[in-house]
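Example 3.
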Amino acid sequence: MLFGRVRGTAVSTIKYPDLKGLKLLVVEPLNKHLDPTGPLQVAVDVVQAGPGDLCVMVRSREAALAMRENTFVPVDLALVGVVDELTVHPDDEFDLTLKKGSVRYT
Amino acid sequence: MILGKVTGTVVTTISHPHYKNRRLLVVQPLMLPGQEPEGDFLALDNTHAGVGDTVLVNREGNAARQVLNNPDACVISVIVGIVDSLNIPELE
């Protein structure tokens, strides 16, 4: 699961029949620092997000499972949450490297 | 499963029903010395992990559905354990 920022909407008239009625949004995938990690993509919205909203997205088969009714649809990216509050600690606050030998974490 | 560090928390008021009642956390995968850091991701918490905890994360939908006890859950990454200690005798 990953962050995404809604950048716009997409409209498609000729499409696979099961995609009818689904709301398509143009989104920009982001990392935890909210920096873009790739090109714009199209996601199906099930949480009524709007332009500029920071969202939680889910990929692959699970994106289709997020649909309200028919979950057997050709969808590979879905918006499943609108972020209200995000707290991210800087990486240098944690030791992210694995070490040789025995290490206790708790 | 991968090893990661919880580095942040996410609050979503409007979210898919399958995401309710559990916290969404930001996870940064651990890396070997000298390795490039991997991309971070979001995971649903099933273990009451907190920021700074080293965790065991499942990044596969079927495993997540089993953990959440819901055969239709639209969740991929789920935190399934908090790591107490690691013992790696050899490391390149």
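Chain A has one domain: 2-93. Chain A is about 5% helix and 40% strand.
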